[in-house]
């Protein structure tokens, strides 16, 4: 990993975020509270898998060692995965999924809107596609967070509990390092620190109409961006990589 | 005119309409038996689409490539969409989705027997697409000409998507047959397990089929179980040969005179056992559906409570 160029590391981080999100969303298939939600979540999982495919394929090109999006997705061990921890947490219930999707798609809206203006044509094209999808993800998730937060006592309590569990993991999304700062200084990627305030504004607006309080917190859970994960990622990779690992000579 | 005369007159009008090949639409008068038959058939069809999401959903997180995962996600999403579409078609006959789901849970309404079999390996995803959707298409193509308008229109759209499903299933099988020895064995094993249940999807032999009379006269059903089964076998045998899969039936033989393949006896004891609730996954599928339904209730209650609060606020403002 130390030999990676900053842009390669950056693309792996974005690709892994999308890949792990798609995994969690796809777990809802045949488990949605109503058929309409089953379809919506499966559709979001499909968007995210496509996004991961594009980003990892671009990462493979940048690396230039004959990898593909599939070999990156299915053959890397946990410590080479660079997604933010928030994406790998298991879904406790529908409230958890919707709160997470609201928080992360509000982030993706800002990130990809900025990336769309990147002089890097690959990133700009992927971002343009991502924005169209994310707009729906955010509207859908924000609508549900408002309904669940301001619905019944039970839904309010579940939503608050989800927010309490997820909030400590949101700080990592705004972490950066010197390599990324250089990319930002060169105008290739946005300065992520500058997106924190507009993100907080959007999240606060949704949470307010959901009658939910933002948890008071000073300590953030981090590590995913540098390959140190929660216990959950190992289980995800066990399942996701099962066939490729069990039959290494097979093509599918 | 007595009530009986009116009934006879109405039935005559209805049957003349059917005879002319006109579609029956939701607001048209129709015999109760016609309505009941359609509700039973369309809701069973809708439930099948939804329950079918379970065995396939079982493999989404383990799909072996990003492309395979995307195709499977899109396919299952289609199936759920078909479910919604068909529930809506059934609702035009005066039954609600909630009632249909209640009937599914009580056992009054059925779903396709085929989904009571387990999806054990990735090749099963190929077999389900190729054989199960392949069998379903044969039936659904004939239903595009069914007499009830909303059902026939639903079928036109569903058939387009199902033919994509069938091709993706066949592609999985073809790829595996070109792959390693282990992959080939997996594919043949899936073929062996799904072939006979796929033939059973067309239902009992025509001589044994209990619902055929009215369904044919009223053009709900447009081809017999055995006719459809023969069509499916004829097209599938050739497809299997092309990729090197063996059909698990020693008695399978082309019959020049009939212009169809003859096949060995279908195990109807197994068929009725599975219908009776004793298939490998009956309990699992139904418990899954009930559990998800129950666990999701708080979400709908929240949405309803939220809507009521908004209405109350509007009322207070006025």
Please tell me about this protein's structure:
The complex is a heterodimer of chains A (252) and B (318). Chain A has helices at 6-26, 35-63, 69-75, 94-115, 121-149, 153-166, 178-185, 196-209, 232-240, 242-246. Chain A has 252 residues and is mainly alpha-helical. Chain A has a single domain, classed as Up-down Bundle (Ferritin), CATH 1.20.1260.10. In chain A, helix 1 runs antiparallel to helix 2, helix 2 (35-63) crosses helix 3 (69-75) and helix 4 packs antiparallel against helix 5. The longest helix of chain A has 29 residues, at 35-63. The radius of gyration of chain A is 18 Å and the shape is globular. Chain B has 318 residues and is mainly α. Chain B has two domains: 22-267, Ferritin, core subunit, four-helix bundle (Ferritin), CATH 1.20.1260.10; 281-318. In chain B, a hairpin with a 4-residue loop joins strand 1 and strand 2. The chains are: A mainly alpha (252), B mainly alpha (318). At the A-B interface, helix 1, helix 2, helix 3, helix 5 and helix 6 of A face helix 3, helix 4, helix 12 and helix 13 of B.
Biggest pleated sheet of chain A = none
Please identify the top-level CATH class of the largest domain in chain B: Mainly Alpha
Q: In the CATH classification, which architecture of chain A applies? A: Up-down Bundle
Q: Find the count of extended strands of chain B (DSSP E, 2+ residues).
A: 2
What integer is the average pLDDT of chain B? 95
Taking all Cα atoms into account, the compactness measure Rg of chain A is 18 Å
Q: How many separate helices of chain A?
A: 10
Q: Roughly how much helix do the residues of chain B carry, as a percent range?
A: 55-70%
Annotated CATH homologous superfamily of the largest domain in chain B: Ferritin, core subunit, four-helix bundle
CATH architectural type of the largest domain in chain B: Up-down Bundle
Shape call of chain A: globular
Instruction: Let me know the number of strands of chain A.
Output: 0
Mean pLDDT of chain A: 97
Number of domain units of chain A: 1
Distance between the termini of chain A: 28 Å
**Largest protein interface?**
A-B, 49 and 45 residues
Assembly type: heterodimer
Q: What is the succession of H and E elements of chain A?
A: HHHHHHHHHH
Summing up helix and strand content along with how strands pair, one would put the structural category of chain A as mainly alpha
């Amino acid at each position: 990993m130390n030999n990676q160029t900053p842009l390669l590391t950056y693309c792996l981080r974005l690709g892994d975020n999308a890949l792990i999100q798609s995994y969690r969303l796809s777990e809802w298939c045949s488990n949605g509270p109503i058929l309409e939600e089953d379809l919506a979540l499966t559709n979001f999982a499909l968007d995210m898998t496509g996004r991961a495919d594009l980003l990892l394929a671009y990462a493979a090109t940048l690396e230039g060692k004959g990898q593909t999006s599939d070999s990156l997705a299915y053959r890397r061990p946990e410590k080479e995965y660079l997604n933010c921890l928030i994406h790998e947490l298991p879904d406790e219930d529908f409230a958890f999924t919707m709160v997470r999707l609201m928080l992360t798609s509000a982030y993706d809206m800002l990130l990809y809107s900025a990336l769309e203006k990147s002089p890097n044509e690959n990133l700009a094209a992927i971002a343009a596609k991502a924005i169209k999808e994310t707009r729906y993800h955010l509207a859908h998730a924000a609508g549900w967070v408002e309904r669940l937060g301001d619905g019944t006592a039970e839904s309010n309590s579940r939503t608050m509990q989800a927010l309490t569990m997820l909030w400590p993991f949101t700080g990592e999304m705004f972490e950066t390092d010197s390599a990324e700062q250089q990319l930002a200084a060169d105008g290739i990627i946005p300065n992520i620190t500058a997106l924190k305030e507009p993100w907080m504004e959007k999240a606060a607006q949704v949470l307010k109409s959901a009658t939910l309080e933002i948890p008071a917190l000073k300590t953030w859970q981090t590590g995913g961006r540098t390959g140190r994960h929660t216990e959950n990622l190992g289980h995800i990779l066990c399942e996701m990589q099962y066939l490729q690992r069990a039959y290494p000579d097979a093509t599918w | 005119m007595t009530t009986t005369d009116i009934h006879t007159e109405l039935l005559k009008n209805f049957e003349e309409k059917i005879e002319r090949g006109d579609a029956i639409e939701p607001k048209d008068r129709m015999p109760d038996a016609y309505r009941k038959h359609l509700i039973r058939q369309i809701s069973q069809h809708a439930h099948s689409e939804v329950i079918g999401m379970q065995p396939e959903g079982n493999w989404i997180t383990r799909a072996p490539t990003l492309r395979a995962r995307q195709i499977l996600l899109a396919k299952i999403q289609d199936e759920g969409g078909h479910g919604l579409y068909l529930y809506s078609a059934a609702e035009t006959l005066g039954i609600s989705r909630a009632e249909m789901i209640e009937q599914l849970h009580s056992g009054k309404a059925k779903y396709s027997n085929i989904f009571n079999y387990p999806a054990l390996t990735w090749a099963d995803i190929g077999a389900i697409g190729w054989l199960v959707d392949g069998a379903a298409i044969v039936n659904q193509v004939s239903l595009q000409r069914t007499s009830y308008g909303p059902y026939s229109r639903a079928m036109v759209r569903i058939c387009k998507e199902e033919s994509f499903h069938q091709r993706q299933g066949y592609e999985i099988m073809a790829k595996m047959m070109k792959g390693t020895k282990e992959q080939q064995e997996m594919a043949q094993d899936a073929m062996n397990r799904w072939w006979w249940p796929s033939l059973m999807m067309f239902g009992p032999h025509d001589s044994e089929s209990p619902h055929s009379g009215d369904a044919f006269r009223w053009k709900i059903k447009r081809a017999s179980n055995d006719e459809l089964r023969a069509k499916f076998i004829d097209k599938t045998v050739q497809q299997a040969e092309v990729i090197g899969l063996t059909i698990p039936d020693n008695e399978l033989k082309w019959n020049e005179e009939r212009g169809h393949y003859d096949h060995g006896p279908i195990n109807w004891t197994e068929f009725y056992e599975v219908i009776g609730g004793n298939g490998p996954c009956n309990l699992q599928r139904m418990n899954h559906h009930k559990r998800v339904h129950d666990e999701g209730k708080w979400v709908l209650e929240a949405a309803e409570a939220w809507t009521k609060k908004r209405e109350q606020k509007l009322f207070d403002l006025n």
